[in-house]
Amino acid sequence: MIKYLNYLVASLLVATPLSASAWQSVREGDRVTVFSQTQEGSALQVFRAETEVDAPPAQALALIKDTAACVDWMHTCKSPKLIREVSAEERFTYMEIDLPWPVKDRALTMHATVSPVEGGGVLVSLLNKSAAELAPADAANLPRKSSAVPVESALGFFKLVPLPGDRCRVVYQLQLNPGGGLPAGVVNSRIEDNVFNTLKNMQTAVLNARYRG
To answer: Model confidence at 178, in pLDDT bands (50, 70, 90)?
Structure first.
């Protein structure tokens, strides 16, 4: 399963001219640059944001793995929950995407794996799983009273690349289909805001003393 997940994420890391357009810069500010890519046969875009933070990869990874802290830096994240920690390199988590009324919030159950990448970096691969795809014990651990609608699909990653001076470059990529017939333009705008604000917030959140060392 981990090898399959890393294969899916690797396909996102490499542009595929036959099925996708080139990356286009769509937003820049607050030390964050956002790119988008149009996928053939879909009006929904893939978004990639990049920034640099004043912390090494291990410190940034500690923040990412702190499920409860999701609300402090991941844009529109609410109700985070650790479903199961399989190992230091694999876990299942739950979160909801806070959307404005009258649109219903969306629910994400993410299978996250951590693997090393060339040059001393780290790749955190993210793949949404439906309740039917989870082990029965994991599915039973999902929130029961939530009115959030499960997303149709989500795939992404955080890539942490070491830089001189105990710093790192962070790449956050997200491909998400919330389902529910929402207009593609609205979805694309929301995802662009998500990746931009998430990395903007990460610049400060990663400096918390509990993630050092």
So the answer is: very high
Gap between the Cα atoms of 96 and 149, Å rounded: 9
Q: Are 40 and 128 in contact (CB under 8 A)?
A: no
Q: How far is the CA of 153 from the CAs of 29, 129, 149, 180, 185, in angstroms?
A: 29, 8, 12, 12, 17
Q: Identify the CA nearest to 159 among candidates 209, 113, 103.
A: 113
Residue 40 pLDDT class (50, 70, 90 cuts): confident
Q: Are 155 and 9 in contact (CB under 8 A)?
A: yes
Whole-angstrom Cα distance, residue 92 to residue 17?
33
Radius of gyration of the chain, Cα coordinates, nearest whole angstrom: 16
Contact by Cβ (8 Å): 201, 174: no
Among candidate residues 112, 104, 148, 106, the one with its CA nearest the CA of residue 129:
112
pTM for the full predicted model:
0.90
> How far, in Å, CA of 132 to CA of 73, rounded?
29
Q: What Å distances lie between residue 191 and 22, 46, 188, CA to CA? A: 18, 8, 5
Residue 7 has pLDDT above 80, yes or no: no
Strands 149-150 and 106-117: parallel
Cβ count near 68 (within 10 Å): 9
| pLDDT score of 205 | 98
- List, in sequence order, the alpha helices (H) in 81-207: 136-140, 184-205
